[in-house]
Amino acid sequence: MTTxxxxxxxxxxxxxxxxxxxxxxxxxxxxxxxxxxxxxxxAFQAENLAAGKFQIAGTAFDNVxxxxxxxxxxxxxxxxxxxxxxxxTQVELAFVTAPDIATYADLKGKSLALDALSTGFxxxxxxxxxxxGLTKDDYSMIAVGATPQRWxxxxxxxxVGTLTIEPFTSIARNQGFKVxxxxxxxxxxxxxxxxxxxxxxxxxxxxALKGYIKGYLAGLAWTLDPANREEATKILLxxxxxIKPPVAGAVMNSLLSPRSGxxxxxxxxxxxxxxxxxxxxxxxxxAKLTDPARYIDLTYYNQVV
Length: 305
Hints:
It is built from 13 helices and ten strands. It is of the alpha/beta class. It folds into two domains: 3-90 and 190-304, Periplasmic binding protein-like II (D-Maltodextrin-Binding Protein, domain 2); 94-185, Periplasmic binding protein-like II (D-Maltodextrin-Binding Protein, domain 2, 3-Layer(aba) Sandwich), CATH 3.40.190.10. Strand 6 (110-114), helix 5 (122-131) and strand 7 (139-143) form a beta-alpha-beta unit. The longest helix has 19 residues, at 206-224.
């Protein structure tokens, strides 16, 4: 008997291990059936995870922290009990800008697109801007949604820049847009993507959660095996038709690098976790955050690995 799991993730190449596990029946071998939905925004994702419409979310680790600290982009009707149970990516965030933006100084008086203004990767962009001499009075931030919507807003000229992940970074570069900077130039480590659930659901469905972890890890190991790169690329192109063959190589190079993409064994990178907490402590609205155990429980993951 298989257990159905509905998972909601941000659109992007980092979903490739899920695609692989679905295509190759790896989830079913682990006793679960996984239905994947992509989210238009972090707010939509958090609301529907809290409401139980989805059991698992693939999300920025900072989103887990934000909602647990009451600093989320939307106010949830009840206090959430989200926790990260497994890592996903270190993730390199590219600061993609319009072709005429050559330096950080050129951003003065311009608007930039974010998913949400106080969750996810917003604080990474604030830090990049501050480190390069800009204050919050020099630019405006607009909440637009997930990466596809943000990239389209820059492409259309509505905003002059945003943070992107693959494949949107390579797509933008291929169309003449600039990568002004990357997060990896500034941050030695950063826990980007993670998988999260509610503690209540996990406690009531431990075997289903472990089945998801087992299936995902099998898909990840297959994806990271160099012998499978050609087939993995084919699966990615089939599942994400917005990726065109000319940029597929660059997308895969970034995705397969632990520095900019998928984390081997889906480990939580604790130095990267510390970086997330440091940025939220600096730019968030609450006190200094120092205790990762408030947001992470690796019990289920450790039982699988």
